[in-house]
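User: I'm writing a short report section on ligand binding and want a predicted complex to refer to. Could you take this sequence and magnesium ion and write out the structure as tokens? A short remark afterwards would be nice.
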Amino acid sequence: MKGLVLESHGRRVTVRLKSGDQGKVQATLRGKIRLQNLKSTNPVCCGDVVDLCYQPITGDWTLEGVEERRNHMVRKATNLSKQTHALAANLDCVWVVCSLFEPKFSGGFVDRIALSAAAFDIPCRVILNKSDRWNEEARSVAEHWREVYAAAGIEIWFSSALNGDGVAELALAMNKGTQLLTGYSGAGKSSLINALFPGLQAATGAISEFSGKGTHTTTTATLYETGTQAAVIDSPGIKEWGILDLEPYEIAYHFPEIRKHSPRCHYPNCSHTHEPNCAVQEAVQEQRIYQERFVSYLSILANEDQYN
Ligand SMILES: Nc1nc2c(ncn2[C@@H]2O[C@H](COP(=O)(O)OP(=O)(O)O)[C@@H](O)[C@H]2O)c(=O)[nH]1
Ligand SMILES: [Mg+2]
Ligand SMILES: [Zn+2]
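Assistant: Sure. The structure tokens for the complex follow:
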């Protein structure tokens, strides 16, 4: 029997059955599946379509296999880690949920996620949430980031889970396919999901503050079905996004504004770091490529963990 993975907790996986009573069941991974991908901390993640088997004697469900993924978002905890972690599979869009302050906006962080999404061929967009807290100066900073990312082909959407700004537009954009919401802890992913899909009850930071416990917020990614062909995935806050091994030319390729200028570099294999007659460096100097993005490119190329 086929099922859709809603949550994965190591060997225990919560699955929605695709036929029959369409109920939710807990299934256990079989050893052979666990061993297939040694470098990954989790062979199965939310969004995976799996084969299940009911064991009549024990009354348990076992997970027998995983269907090939259309795509997935996989990261390393940091650039130095060896192990990879699959966050979610079979995605239509990755939304990086950010705020300007608390947590502070980090272009380097957004760029790492956007690069990974591009490398996995998944559309990526950014949400700048908590717009209710912006004064005029903050709004102009938000507009600046919007321009920086527009030049990179990445849309920034403004929203407030608190007062509903931009929520209707987001809900419309999310009404089909599978959306992954990711980003720093505290940016408002869970609050936004609750605002976007009334009826869902994603645990938010506010609840855990209220109950005085730090344990109510998301610890693993959870897929919520929001329609017959629509789902949204809430994910735990991450501090850093380690990029899977990419060649330097691939990194440059997935920065569209760098890709655009590089054909005019003197050397066809120009890395845009030190070469003479580099059209990309020229464009940075002439402010035709935003400094912020070029700094990210150099940092990722140098295999540094994010610092800006
Ligand atoms: N002012 C304001 N606070 C928000 C907004 N969205 C979320 N928050 C608050 O930010 C904190 C973290 O929210 P949460 O949804 O748990 O963030 P997550 O860790 O990204 O899921 C909570 O205290 C929320 O009430 C917003 O749009 N405006
Ligand atoms: Mg959350
Ligand atoms: Zn160059």
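A remark for your report: Confidence is low (pLDDT under 50) at residues 207-216. The longest strand covers residues 2-9.
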